[in-house]
Automatic annotation (TrEMBL):
<keyword id="KW-0457">Lysine biosynthesis</keyword>
<keyword id="KW-0963">Cytoplasm</keyword>
<feature type="site" description="Part of a proton relay during catalysis">
    <location>
        <position position="44"/>
    </location>
</feature>
<comment type="subunit">
    <text>Homotetramer; dimer of dimers.</text>
</comment>
<feature type="site" description="Part of a proton relay during catalysis">
    <location>
        <position position="107"/>
    </location>
</feature>
<dbReference type="Pfam" id="PF00701">
    <property type="entry name" value="DHDPS"/>
</dbReference>
<feature type="binding site">
    <location>
        <position position="203"/>
    </location>
    <ligand>
        <name>pyruvate</name>
    </ligand>
</feature>
<feature type="active site" description="Proton donor/acceptor">
    <location>
        <position position="133"/>
    </location>
</feature>
<dbReference type="InterPro" id="IPR020625">
    <property type="entry name" value="Schiff_base-form_aldolases_AS"/>
</dbReference>
<comment type="pathway">
    <text>Amino-acid biosynthesis; L-lysine biosynthesis via DAP pathway; (S)-tetrahydrodipicolinate from L-aspartate: step 3/4.</text>
</comment>
<protein>
    <recommendedName>
        <fullName>4-hydroxy-tetrahydrodipicolinate synthase</fullName>
        <ecNumber>4.3.3.7</ecNumber>
    </recommendedName>
</protein>
<keyword id="KW-0220">Diaminopimelate biosynthesis</keyword>
<keyword id="KW-0028">Amino-acid biosynthesis</keyword>
<dbReference type="InterPro" id="IPR002220">
    <property type="entry name" value="DapA-like"/>
</dbReference>
<dbReference type="GO" id="GO:0008840">
    <property type="term" value="F:4-hydroxy-tetrahydrodipicolinate synthase activity"/>
</dbReference>
<keyword id="KW-0456">Lyase</keyword>
<comment type="similarity">
    <text>Belongs to the DapA family.</text>
</comment>
Amino acid sequence: MFSGSIVALVTPFKKDGEVDYDGLKKLVDFHVESGTDGIVAVGTTGESATLTIEEHVKVVNKIVECADGRIPVIAGTGANATHEAMTFSRLLNNSGIVGVLSVTPYYNKPTQEGLYQHYKAINDVSEVPIILYNVPGRTAVDLLPETVARLSKLENIVALKDATGDLERVAIHRELCGEEFVLLSGDDATGLEFVRLGGQGVISVSNNVAAKPMADLFDLMKEGKYEEAAEIDKRLTSLHKNLFVEANPIPVKWAVHQMGLIDDGGMRLPLTVLSEEAQPVVKQALSDAGIL
């Protein structure tokens, strides 16, 4: 169900800071034409933290509308309050999405039992498949493999996005969760190796600008052509690294704007546009990848 090259899509804003709903169609068309396997709408890269609930739901619905069945859409629905994450699930159950991506609760540092109960509550109200999302570097909490295994037994929890960069966890998760459970990387720099070790794909930041190379890379992986895929990945190494030269999604949004895919690269506070010092770094990474 979830595999290959999935983009963690940026959310475009107008110069006045309002969401550019018309601009979403250009982004969706770009990914359809590039062969991207799926879109995550309003995840971390989509600036979910600074959108209102109304905006969040409206952006997801607009992306589903623009996709028009041409590409599957996954909605970011994570929150650090369980009731809010449940609300997102209820509001989006009948929106046309194929699943939801739910990040671990951030800032409040729940225990492993708290994480289990959080996701169980979401499982109980969701009518679409759920992808767990573990990114300790941003949330300050680590969803441990044993807890993932417990959660994998629940009806609607079918996958994990693992952004730890810890490749040893691929085999651990596979052993604990079984062959049917989907493992997705959330770390572009180690994504190729993650899939080689048994993962099914990557939810990618780099895909926002390198959509065609990323799609080609995973097509080659499916065909067992690892060395050819590795050559593509090698060209993207600088991009994978330097799209995080400042906090995501600051660099990638600037890059998408430079490519002309969105009309404005502005952010909502407390995030600010990419600094002048970092701009040449990202521009060089785009050049190294053959994008600019």
